[in-house]
Amino acid sequence: MTPLTTDSTSKQFKFEREKLSPIVVNFQGGQVTSDAGLSLIAEIDRKLQITSRLAKCFQDYRKPNKTLHPVESLLTQRIYGLIMGYEADGMTKMVKMQTK
C-alpha cells in the first residue's frame, strides 16, 4: 500500500496488485448514501419478481376489510429492511396491529 498525497487534507492509497490494474482508494466521497444499493436490489427484484413470487407462498388469514397492506408489501419491506441492516424496523408492531 502506497499513500499518495494530493494536497494537505486529502489522502489517497494505491493498492498494487501483481499483473492487475491497481486499486486506488481515497476519502473524497462527495455526496454518499448508504441506502443507494437498495435501488439496485429493488430493480433486480422487480425484474425477477422474487418477492412477488415468494408472497404467493403465504396464505393471508387477515380480515380483508381490516387489512391496510398486502402480504407482498409487508414481505418486501421486511426483506429490504433486513438487506439494509434494519433489524428492528417496526414491522412487528404493524403486523400485530393488523392481525387484531
- The H-and-E topology, N to C, reads as EEEHHHH
Strand order of the largest sheet: 1-2-3
Number of strands: 3
Taking all residues together, what is the mean pLDDT?
A: 78
Strand content: 5-15%
- Which ranges are low-confidence, i.e. pLDDT below 50, for 5 or more consecutive residues? none
The Cα radius of gyration reads 22 Å
What is the helix fraction of residues, given as a range?
Answer: 25-40%
Number of helical stretches of at least 4 residues:
4
State the secondary-structure class.
alpha+beta
What kind of sheet is the major sheet?
3 strands, antiparallel
End-to-end distance, in Å? 59 Å
Please give the domain count.
2
Taken from the alpha-carbon principal axes, the silhouette is elongated
Structure commentary:
The chain has 100 residues and is of the alpha+beta class. The chain folds into two domains: 1-30, no CATH class; 37-98, no CATH class. Helix content is 39%, strand content 13%. The chain is built from four helices and three strands; from the N terminus they run βββαααα. The chain has helices at 37-48, 50-55, 71-83, 91-98, and strands spanning 2-5, 11-15, 23-26.
